[in-house]
UniProtKB/TrEMBL annotation:
Pfam families cross-referenced by the UniProt entry: MC_hydratase (PF19315)
Superkingdom of source: Bacteria
Coiled coil ranges: none
GO molecular function: lyase activity
Alphabetically ordered keywords of this record: Plasmid
UniProt-listed InterPro entries: HotDog_dom_sf, MC_hydratase, MCH/BMMD
Name of the protein in question: Uncharacterized protein
Length: 337
């Protein structure tokens, strides 16, 4: 089944400024036009996660409006920068279905692609979401569970956006750490934390035109014995912004290899996060290398309290205060060849 999601969305400088206001993002290449040009880009790109959350929001009405929960992501690829004035259109294909044992719900697996006004793919991703069944007794047939790679391989990562000018980023941040200075196993406890206000996550979800009832309808959530949930994409954005300290010279997100919203976040919770370097990827470029990172976000606790699961644990048993476990890859400038 293929779905063309309504309606295409043009992203503007206003959207970008509002995103910064909601998350506090300080990504250097997206902060100032002068930064972007000095680093070798034609102009300042939009924040990667603004693009992701906007494209994701387009799929919600058709895929997860009535979802029980958004369960996870895989194979998320950021294929080129998106700029102010670009228009995104999104298409989704259902690639798997699996009924749950209680026969009241099931998991839907989808692959979505966002294209700009020129028809170029700018973003693609796989996600799976738990959805209620209309008729609990209806037969759903044999389960179809798609296979995805655990990691977006280096050959599939974007590698042609940057030139030697990216090394000048150290003069902008005042931090000298580049790709060569990070080692596998390095842990970074990011010192900042952010409390999620009702206004923050409400405005963020509206910015992305994400219509999921769990984020908007307090009456319905209260009737179900719960309260409104903070959209998981907002938590990813907040944690990414907090991770600036320790990853100051990061250029952009290349891929999200996998991720899960482990426990819910509600208004009033305070988010902190820590990152571990789990791999270094040579992109075959003189100027930029890849860092594969694992970022864990917690609520109402310090980053130093976070315990990273062992690499062999595919489904780790996180404590109840962990809200995000994200495996992603970033572009980081290299020193001179």
């Amino acid at each position: 089944m293929k779905i063309n999601h309504a309606t295409p969305r043009t992203l503007t400088e206003g959207d970008h400024s509002l995103y910064i206001g909601l998350t506090g993002s300080r990504t250097v290449v997206c902060t100032a036009e002068t930064n972007a040009r000095q680093l070798g880009l034609s102009r300042r790109p939009l924040e990667d996660l603004l693009v992701f959350n906007t494209a994701f929001g387009k799929t919600v009405h058709d895929i997860s409006l009535n979802a029980v929960a958004n369960l996870g992501y895989a194979d998320v690829r950021f294929m080129c920068h998106v700029y102010s004035g670009d228009t995104l259109a999104v298409e989704t294909e259902v690639i798997g279905l699996k009924e749950n044992s209680n026969r009241k719900s099931g998991v839907v697996y989808v692959r979505s692609v966002a294209r700009n006004q020129h028809g170029h793919e700018v973003l693609s991703w796989v996600r799976w979401v738990m959805v209620h069944k209309r008729n609990h007794g209806a037969s759903c047939g044999a389960p179809v569970v798609p296979t995805t790679d655990a990691v977006v391989s280096g050959v599939r990562l974007r590698r042609d956006d940057y030139s030697a000018g990216v090394r000048e980023i150290t003069a902008m941040t005042g931090v000298t750490d580049l790709w060569e200075d990070y080692t596998v196993g390095t842990r970074i406890d990011h010192p900042g934390a952010m409390t999620i206000n009702n206004s923050d996550h409400s405005i963020a979800t509206r910015l992305y035109q994400n219509t999921a009832r769990a984020h908007f309808d307090g009456y319905a959530m209260q009737s179900a014995g719960s309260q409104r949930l903070v959209y998981g994409g907002h938590i990813i954005s907040v944690c990414r912004a907090l991770a600036y300290d320790g990853l100051e010279n990061s250029l952009s997100i290349l891929a999200i290899n996998g991720g899960s919203h482990v426990n819910p976040t509600h208004a009033g919770d305070t988010i902190a996060c820590a990152t571990k370097v789990i791999d270094k990827i040579d992109l075959g470029q003189d100027y930029v290398g890849g860092l594969r990172l694992r970022m864990i976000g917690v609520k109402n606790a310090n980053a130093s309290s976070i315990s990273f699961p062992k690499a062999c644990e595919s489904r780790p048993a996180h404590p109840s205060n962990v809200v995000l476990d994200l495996d992603y890859t970033i572009a980081m400038p290299k020193r001179s060849a």
